[in-house]
């Protein structure tokens, strides 16, 4: 296998441009390009040359959104983490909460601005878009899982 350092850094840059904090983007890219099935926080800090606190914060955030999870590591005294199977579909499923929040924020904005205002016109478009996404994302994620042969989402 070739050196993937540059590809990982390019992925991290793309993720950071998409809104992720730089350290979190680099940690996620390290998970994507890891040769091992799981890694420890100290390993990540050493590989990336960043503080253990930055790695800890990134792991917490990536775990919270469902991209990574703790991995069993018999005989190891350290916590091991791995990219979850189905991580991207899980992330998009979790995004439904954010989509719903954006919809509701637009709805409240329309109420505050009044129906016949330029702000309401813009907020209607926002609300309609997020309403569409909220309705369509679950179906899209299920289609993805079916196409990949993963079947329906596991019950929470």
Strands, helices and their partners?
Blueprint: H1 5-17, H2 22-33, E1 39-40, H3 41-48, H4 52-64, E2 68-71, E3 80-83, H5 87-113, H6 118-147
Antiparallel strand pairs: 1-3, 2-3
The count of helical stretches stands at: 6
Helix/strand-derived class? mainly alpha
3D shape: elongated
User: Biggest sheet, in brief?
Assistant: 3 strands, antiparallel
First and last CA, distance: 38 Å
% residues in beta strands: 5-15%
Structure notes:
The protein is mainly alpha-helical and 156 residues long. Helix content is 66%, strand content 6%. The chain contains 6 helices and 3 strands; from the N terminus they run H-H-E-H-H-E-E-H-H. Helix 5 runs antiparallel to helix 6 (118-147). The model has no long low-confidence stretch (mean pLDDT 90).
